[in-house]
Amino acid sequence: MSKKSPQDLPFEDALSQLEALVEQMESGDLSLEDSLAAFERGVALTRRCETALKAAEQKVEILSKKTDDAQPEPFEGD
Question: What predicted TM-score, i.e. pTM, was given to this entire model?
Fold first, then answer.
């Protein structure tokens, strides 16, 4: 498992690592220190995934608002 910063990971890699961490933590085989480290990394990976999903959602929203008959709005400068 890569120890790259979660912010540097593609969404799919971050999600994969998060799933693997959840499996490790659910197994109950980790020490307290390892569990805390896994939890900390899991939080960072979750934030990375949330950020990527929000960005994708915003992009979809912007793209779905575009229409063929859209007209530019006049610029009202100073």
Answer: 0.74
Query: Per residue in 48-77, pLDDT tens?
Result: 999 999 999 998 888 888 666 666 677 776
Domain annotation covers residue 12: yes
Instruction: Tell whether 37 is covered by a domain.
Output: yes
C-alpha dist (Å) from residue 5 to 16, 35, 42, 75, 78: 14, 18, 12, 42, 45
Distance CA(13)–CA(2), nearest Å, equals 9
Q: Which two tokens stand for residue 9?
A: 């990971």
Contact 6, 14 (CB under 8 A): yes
Sequence-distant (6+) residues with CB within 8 A of 5 are 44
The count of structural domains within the chain is: 1
